[in-house]
Amino acid sequence: MIGPGGEQLGIVPTREALVRAQEHTLDLVEVAPTASPPVCKIMDFGRYKYEQSKRDRDAHRKSRGGDLKGMRMSPKIGEHDFQVKIRRVIEFLKDGDKVRVAMWFRGREMAHPKVGEALLQRLALAVAEVGTVEGAPKLEGRNMIMLLAPRKG
User: Fold this and answer.
1) pLDDT digit string, tens, across residues 38-92
2) Angular region, 25: left φ>0, alpha ψ -120 to 50, beta rest
3) Which domain holds residue 42?
4) Helices (DSSP H) in the chain: which residue ranges?
5) How many domains, the chain?
6) pTM of the entire structure?
């Protein structure tokens, strides 16, 4: 049996263990039922379950690699609109999310993909402090797509 402070109390009969737990107004919890003899611990079981769920929640929260956020723009975007897009992308990257920037071309804009690529490169330079280019701009159908990832540290 293990006491409330984590000290070893040795092998104790079940009745005596229950009495000791009640003296401390705590619960007697079987920690290792397969051991011979089974190991029990005096602890606050409600608090133990709460802390365990908190640890699980934190582990789950840290396990996610960040969401993938999307940002769309066209090659004819105005300067102010472009600055607004840059601010949003920086916010996403600061939150730890990856950003998929899609430049979509319509009609005759397809004849000038270099314009869209130049805009994407400009965006990459603007967010260089908080993010890195994970996937260089490449044309996929009528869209040119670039993937940005947050900087480590």
Assistant:
1) 999 999 999 989 999 999 888 877 766 568 899 999 999 999 999 999 999 999 9
2) left
3) 14-63
4) 14-23, 45-63, 79-94, 113-126
5) 2
6) 0.57
